Amino acid sequence: MKFIIYIVLTGMLLISCTGSPKKENNSQHLENQTISKQDSTCLFDGETLDGWEITNFGPQGPVYVSGGAIILGMGEGCTGITWGKEFPVMNYKVTLEAKRVSGNDFFCGMTFPVEKEPCTLIVGGWGGTVVGLSSINKKDASENETTTLMKFEKDYWYRICLMVKEDTIKAFIDDTVVVDFVKGDKVLSIRPEVELSKPFGIASWYTTAALRNIRLEKNKR
Question: What is the pLDDT confidence band of residue 211, given thresholds at 50, 70 and 90?
Answer without folding.
Answer: very high
